[in-house]
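Q: A reviewer asked whether we had any structural model of the full assembly, not just the individual parts. We don't, so I'm hoping you can provide one. Inputs are below.
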Amino acid sequence: MKVIVGNEDYISQLIADEFVKQVNAKPNSVLGLATGTSPLKVYADMIKANKEGKVSFKDCATFNLDEYIGLEGTHNQSYRYFMNDNLFNHIDIDKARTHVLKGVGDYEAYMRQYDDEIASFGGIDLQILGIGSDGHIAFNEPGTPFDSLTHIAELTESTIKDNSRLFNDISEVPTKAVTMGLKSIMNARKIVLIATGKNKAKAIYNLLKGPKTEEVPCSILQDHPDCTIYCDEEAYSLVK
Ligand code: GLP
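A: Here is a predicted structure for the entire assembly that you could use as a starting point for your response.
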């Protein structure tokens, strides 16, 4: 794994540049996208590059990592809403080619075909990840098997607490989600992970220095052939 340390603006721009480079080299790239606050600046920089004519996403396809069970795509905390609001509505992408797991209705049927659907598009070329304070990636909580594909996950108390800051009340945070599995994520050809703030320091330490164990889901990335970790000084502070 490669590590790049810098302030949030700097690392976000570097990651956005990776997406622009990827899409310019292969206009029909398959992009793996993440939600959470960590990638927000990356998406803002991608929107800027698109508006400035430096890249076009019109032939890309996207697959998102996860979705809360119980939230409609129109709910303002659903990940479909997040993606439309923070990226898709502002770039020239064909929304029919953007895939986000469903959280309502026939979500189990859609979940079961998700990995095959990714494969039918040729697999993910570039995947962005955030990281949970407990080391989760997507919604793969500690203890998730390394060979997992897309599945239903129970959120841990710590994740519910972390994510409650975005809801009116902690009681509104869904307790389950559908998520790409750790194997689904490892199938991506290239991975970039972004982490900022002190709250992520322990997870980044475990990712970079700890043993590879299912108790620390992100530690599986140690085995990925092309994975770069971008973090700010605070997230990197325990590694130094
Ligand atoms: C959620 C998402 C993850 C994300 C994590 C961190 O649990 N399922 O994909 O990485 O939150 O979020 P944030 O970037 O807001 O700290």
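A: Points you may want to mention in the reply: Residues 2-234 form a domain with the Rossmann fold fold (CATH 3.40.50.1360). The mean pLDDT is 97.
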